[in-house]
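Exercise: predict the fold of this chain.
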Amino acid sequence: MKKIYYQCLLLILAFGIFSCNEISLETVPSDFIASQYFYDNEKQLNSALVAVYGTQITGALCGMDGNSLFWAFNQTDDLVVNTTNTAQPSKFDYTSSNAAPYNVYMALYKGIERANLLLANIDKPQMDSTARNVIKGEAKFLRAYFYFLLVSNFGDVILRTEPTASVSDVNYARTPASEVYDFVIKEMEEAEPLVLPISSYKHSGRITKSAVQAILARVCLYYAGAPNNKVAKYTDALKWAEKVINSGLHSLNPDYSQFFINTIQDKYDTKESIWEVEFYSTGATDIYGRYGQWGAGNGVRQLDVTLGYSNGGIMAQAILYNLFNSADLRKDWAIAPYHWLNDNATTTVKVPYLDTEIWERRVGKWRREYELTAQKIQNYTSTNCTMMRYSDVLLMAAEAENQINGPTPKAVDYVNQVRRRAYGNGKALKSFTVTNSGSGYTSAPVVAISGGGAANTGGLVPASATATISNGQVTAVTLVNRGTFYSSVPTVTISGGGGSGATVAPQIVPVTDADLQPVQITDKSSFLQTIQDERARELCFEGWRRNDLIRWGILISTMKTLSAYIRLNAPSALKTPLSASGDNITEKHIYIPIPLRELQLNPLLIQTQGW
């Protein structure tokens, strides 16, 4: 349910509400409610809260274009923006006058101003104290979250907790990042007891205790890591992550691909999805819609609107593709194993990539073919943007525990929970053993898999296999697709091909096949590398990789290694455009520059070092 965006019809900006009344010269205007005449009742407080939430849906924050936080600044070792133009933020070739830093910076401060106005007037109306506290808690958290995005991306930033007094009230110096982080943590900790548990809702669009706790774990990890290095915060990161884990309210969806299909189809999975930014549309005939771009900008290239238009603007890095084990079911969902025939033709034909075709594969997590609306909109979708998943919480808890105590059994178990889901939790096919080769085969026979309580996964191709023959005998049966779960070992039959007698025994992937091996957990350093790789596999393309690399202190080295890998292995035509980000990046790119326009307006602002 996306009621929050219907309420946006009531509110135009956080500073006032317009109505259809005739304009008259009254002391209290009826056509525009200024802030001093607003916040008089619970309904108005909730409308103001909707405006604070509305900050998230701006294209600069959750959009999929060259000026957004998720796209413009997040080309690392998981994704590459599909363009030969190197002069842009995604290629680490831009200046402080570029539109992207300004758009992100201003969107976040607009949200902060809305929250400041609401919180300054939170006690104004007479109303139920519990309802007031919920509004207060959500507003305090959102303001703190916007500051978290600012400090983690821009470093020292202006810290304002009161509404702007006038249009000339602009001269403020940057506050040290440590003070901003301290403020963020304090505000979120104060918000946590005020908001409701996620069990109070049937959706993930509101800020709940689980959301606050999980984001606090993320904030503390960022604060503990580079360049802040407040290592004592690893203890707090573990505390907050384990509050979510121990609440009993969350678990992993058994099917990795189904989780993403649910977000595409507006089906809430509050067990795994802890917080989502909500978008809404029923199609091209909407009277009202709040459109996003997930799937349109980061989907499988297809220019036919009826099938689900996507410009294929983001490609998966080949180095990420090679990070997956062949038994990892996330691989063929996260990175699409196919492209549409001719890309822009009216066709439903999917063309599987060859195993050697790994350099131009598109993002597969948000596939527009799963949208339920019959009248798709070309450049926009209603797919929600997931801000926090339970798998992220498990991996954060493992990382914090490792930083404090090393690779303890508890930390290893947190990672193994994520990996076991990725390998099918003991329900996916692993391989086949030919138990009788038969005789007389003149062509490859048909391999049929049946029984075993088969249930297809959400988005992967159902399980299938092919037979290989030699000298009239079946010498091997090879698994082609893994996308079926089985509750027991299925039956495999061999038919056709001119022969007879061949029999095959299938094997299910044991649950323990997914578990980490001793070499991956020998010490704190090896386990950290394991967690870093697991986060790449589990959370690729979701917008957090760049900041992860920064807090691990390896952004620059990772990008330089990536560039060398591309120049050594990529097809000739792709070497230069794909390696540009690694070639261009320098230490200054740890932070996004303060927008030039802000420097020109505020003489107290000083630009970030290097910019």
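Check your answer against the key: The first helix runs from residue 3 to 6.
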